[in-house]
Write the structure tokens for this entry.
Amino acid sequence: MSTYFPNISKIAYEGAKSKNPFAFKHYNPGEVVEGKTMKDHLRFSVVYWHTMCGQGADMFGGPTAIRPWEAGKSGLELAKARVPVFFEFAEKLGAPYYAFHDRDVAPHAVTLKESNQWFDAIVALLKEQQQRTGIKLLWGTSQLFAHARYAQGAATSPNAEAFAFAAAQVKKALEVTKELGGEGYTFWGGREGYSTLWNTNMKRELDHLAKFLHMAVDYAKQIGFKGQFYIEPKPKEPTKHQYDADAAACLNFLREYDLLPHLKLNLETNHATLAGHSMQHEMEVAGASGALGSIDANTGDLLLGWDTDQFPTDVYLTTQCMLGILKYGGFTTGGVNFDAKVRRESIDPEDLFHAHIGGMDAFARGLKIAAAIRADGRLDQFVKDRYASWDNGLGASIEAGKESFASLEKFALEKGEAGGAASGRQEFLENLINEFI
């Protein structure tokens, strides 16, 4: 093993009483919960973009964390230098998966042809490291928002040539994802939306986005890529109105354009809150439609109105996430992907470990708490009892399609007044959850 982090050994589980900042307190990969190991339940993934490419810059200031392995390097040379560092980090962390964007592992060159050549050079290094470590690719994706050609969108650009370049970029990224054994591929449209409707033909742009995704589905079949496709809801980042604003908007789009059989959702907490929802809401919307595929594990600062991508440390949040994941059958191709970055003030390489250890422990606690709540049964029973009137009699008849407005009017006239619903008992249920947390 290399020595980019010479003072840090492989992170081990030491239990809740450990004071070692480089040890797991709750994440025990081999511990069995509801018949599966924690490792298999959580399927942790480290992202390449924030972990390797994040340097602490923001809209008001430049980089603050120039890593020692980056000094004096740029372009392809810098991209090559990052690969062994990343895999040493992920290996010491014990993460079974990683995820990347094409232009984060290998940046834009002058031409698309040269960009593809740079990408191929890095892919060879990624493949070597995957084989050496056993770490797998959770999913790949294309970065279709930073380059000037995508300033007004990629698949939804008013310029057909931008659409063509985006298609060529995704084609290459799909080929690479297949070559690296990726278990999925994610679409997230950083600029697929509009700033003003005065210059926008929304219907045409949505038609183009659907056509783009159908092309991707067709090409995946052509090359034999069996991985799961995801679309990631993301509002206000950075376009004022994005077409993939939340889970419901994405599902409506996928249904309208006959794409729902081909794509599931990759949900992110920070995007949920920017859309005015909770992550619990977004997961329920996706899960109820059979479209809950994967999650980006982060959180936002509720006092700030942008995507801060902080590591998740709130056990209430991770409990809610894991209750949703367990309710809908757990991950298959998806996982808990840490689309999160250390703070601008956290400038040491060791801070990357502290951040990921905290997030992994928080999700491990959430998993154990969620399993305990499910085993206890009181929460599920309360919800079941609250809807008991639909399990027989009139409710069952309505659900079976046996009633009409006329028959229900007859029932209401004869009844005189509807029976009262039982108390929702929100406070009781919040106390119940607190028993476990």
